[in-house]
Fold:
Amino acid sequence: MLVVVSAHPHQGAIVTLPPPVLPPQGAYYTDIYRNMFAEAGFDNTAVQNKVQTLWEHFFYGTANQKVYYEVGTDEAYILDVANNDVRSEGMSYGMMICVQMDKQTEFNRLWKWAKTRMQYTGGIYQGYFCWQLNQNGTHIGGSPASDGEEYFIMALLLASHRWGDGSGIFNYSFEANEILRHCMRRNDNPGSNGGVTNLFNSTEKQVVFVPAYSNAGFTDPSYHLPAFYQLWSLWASDLSKRPFWADCAAKSRQMFHLFANATTGLMPDYANFNGTPYTNNNTEHQHFRYDAWRCIMNVAMDYAWFKADEGQVALVNKIHNFFNSKGINSYGNLYELNGTQQNGGSAHSPGLVACNATGALASNQSIAWDFISDFYNTYIPSGTYRYYDGLLYFLNYLHLSGNFKIYKPQNQNSVQNIGNKEIDKIISQNGDFLLFEKEIKNVKIYNINGHNVFSAQNISKINTSTFNAGIYFVKINTENGTFTKKIIINSK
Structure:
């Protein structure tokens, strides 16, 4: 079918194209990251040039454009311009942008400011990051905000894999794993530990809104990042926690469907652990508001990277259909979950436009191209509200231009050891068989979602010819302890 890109993208249908063709596997397995703008017919040179334009705009632009501000010789912060403060959300987003853009100097500046000024070094919040600070580094907000910790961890792990670890606070993998440790070293009861809890409820396997007091009793759907948790389940240095992170990934995939309104697909800002909107604080956050913009981005990223839940396609299509019904280039930004627009919610916000466009990574409908084109032609945010809209614009543009990537450990091969290097002497692969050095007392094999797919006792080899292609974890018990090894079974 002929590609037709309208010369007037804000009038009528924007793009006429066949439906997107979804790849057979996620990018984690193929290392192929789709350039949705190019697939939509936009010139790839112009697409990639705009990536650099965004970098110059938000990091080194005019006083009305930039959100990145340097401090001294080796620090920097991301400014929430409208509120005149610095937030863990923005700092961690900025670091993620830097690692994706291969900008280590700016990454290190942001991380030093966050590490030395935002992270609590003692007290009940030790190890967490203050969510809100003044530009001089003094604390305003008195608690963490969970999305900041999540993006700090992921950005640091990717930095470790892309650039290698440095020393001190620039030992990225150590710092990421220390945050992971602090996030789960407490318990789920706000009645203990001075009211501070784990970042993830260990029973519900869901991220909490804030790991403190009553705010730990519910979640924020836009904080659910199953693609990140899946990577933590592969890379966390605490081997005992890897199955937990895999469980969190699987749970978040399940929860997206429970959070979503059955008709519109819209999700609320805050939700109970059973998926229903959280209404106890008598605020507007039981509706689709600013936080919830990011939900479709998180769903699509997970699908693009791992393709673990085909139901995500139907969910994205439902959300796209709703916004399309409101006008592809004029829909508002604040809605009740049933689709009723809220007062003051008529703006066609660039941040929401960007997130909805990323949904195209998990769509098989032709209207996905309309969302891509609407985003490509949307102005780059400047002025008072350039912080949130702008960072979402940049992150999503990276996703859609094929520039938001997983950087794997530099020594990752087809078979990767976990923990004790002696495991290679115990377990080996030979064709369709796993071979053990000697008879193993107890063997369990888990898939990438943490589900036990094989168990046996007192065996010396396993025939894997009936296993689906993918990543598995072999856990064995011997007289010398418990060991785990990651294996990859290729398609036959």
User: Anything to note?
Assistant: The CA atoms of residues 476 and 483 lie 5 Å apart. The chain is about 35% helix and 15% strand.
